[in-house]
Amino acid sequence: MSLASLIDRAAGGGRLTYEEGVRLYEEAPLHELGAAAHHRRMTMYPTDDVTYVIDTTINYTNVCNVHCTFCAFFRPERHGEGYTMSHDDVIGRARWAADQGATQIMIQGGVNPDLKLEWFERLFTRVRSELPGVDIHSLSVSEIVGLAHVENITTKAVLERLRAAGLKSLPGAGAEILVERVRKRISARKVKPESWLGVMREAQNLGMPTTATMMFGSIETNAERVAHLDAVRSLQDETGGFTAFIPWYYVPFKTPLKGKEATGLEYLRVLAISRLFLDNVPHLQASWLTPGLKLGQLALFYGCDDMGGTILEERVVHDAGSTNEATRKQLEELVISAGFRPVIRDTYWNLRPQMALATA
Ligand code: SF4
Questions:
Q1: Cβ–ligand 1 contact at 66 (below 6 Å)
Q2: What's residue 290's pLDDT?
Q3: Do the domain assignments include residue 320?
Q4: Distance between CA 119 and CA 180 in Å, rounded?
Q5: CA triplet 134, 250, 203: central angle to 5 degrees?
Q6: Looking at the domain assignment, is residue 40 inside a domain?
Q7: Which of 193, 272, 329, 340 is deepest in the core (most CB within 10 A)?
Q8: Does residue 354 sit within a domain?
Q9: Phi, psi of 147 (to 5 degrees)
């Protein structure tokens, strides 16, 4: 098939094989790829709406026994700079965010073996009772697996107990690239690709929706990026439990792994191929946190229908060297000046038209 025919088929929603995905990624001119992805997005959502969620990320501990080489946030156990917030501190930060309209909190941190499952159960129970308007979208697969080790129970049992305490959904963090060769180099002690997919499957089968992420730009090849998309698409065929895909690029400035930052063109190419390849994942999110607000705006023409969250507070990516921050007004103005209409949603893509826009 000619490249032009392949682009047309992808723009029309035709499923791409892994080989076709690699070919499109490596050979298609960027603007044609972007136009196809934008066409696909406008066919899926034929409106000018671009959604975003008011949210915050509370990095409750930086103590971690996984030691990923791409991470500048963690401190090993017993390091003088390690911290763990008190429940009161987490609740105080969540309340501050809720007072600013947040409907989602992401409580996420290192894999700290000193924290037992009961610590999270008590925390989530408090959040649920003291801040009933906030959804707990929290804990990465790595943290779930860490808790299963600490308690010597299954990850499914961990998920069931956390769900009973108020956890409603999982963020897609910790996926990086779901290819063993890459993980051995950048996160050798982290869960293997099949474990990440397995915990996501368990959560989704328990009725907890999740997102999926991809951290690209470290050491992986283009083909390994497409293999990651293929793994996500296969699980989505089975469960339908992913709400959104969120590719973001590695920030190398303060990490042991070092390396180079991905270019803007590379970011846009990843977005476009993601929209075209993931024909069964509803939403594609512009991850402005690493590429910045201006590229985040351009992302709306490369397949994205969502601007992600306001992320009122965050440490992991900022510790790696990112300086990007956004107010609600800035996010909305980017959407408006791109010719779209900002719409506030919650974690599960229920629109919240009753919530006033910052630009209103
Ligand atoms: S990325 Fe997460 S799991 Fe890896 S070292 Fe950092 S905090 Fe720990």
A1: yes
A2: 83
A3: yes
A4: 32
A5: 40
A6: yes
A7: 272
A8: no
A9: -65, -35
Q: pLDDT (tens digit, 9 = 90+) per residue, 114-139?
A: 999 999 999 999 999 999 999 999 99
> Which CATH number covers residue 96?
3.20.20.70
Examine residue 359 and state whether it is found in any structural domain, yes or no: no
Residue whose C-alpha is closest to residue 75's, from 252, 256, 216: 256
DSSP 3-state assignment of 285? strand
Q: Which domain holds residue 319?
A: 3-345
Give the position of tokens 């603007």.
Answer: 31
Is residue 58 within 6 Å of ligand 1 at its C-beta?
Answer: no
Provide the β-strand partners of residue 345.
Answer: 53, 351
Ligand 1 pocket check for 303: Cβ under 6 Å: no
Cα of 140 vs centre of ligand 1, distance in Å, is: 10
Query: Does the Cβ of 64 fall within 6 Å of ligand 1?
Result: yes
68 lines ligand 1 (CB under 6 A): yes
Taking the centre of ligand 1 as the mean of its atom positions, its distance from the CA of residue 297, in whole angstroms, is 28
CA of 353 to the centre of ligand 1 (A): 36
Say which range, 228-237, 296-305, 350-359, has the weakest mean pLDDT. Answer: 350-359
pLDDT per position as a tens digit, 308-340: 988 777 666 667 666 666 788 888 999 999 999
- What's the number of domains the chain is made of? 1
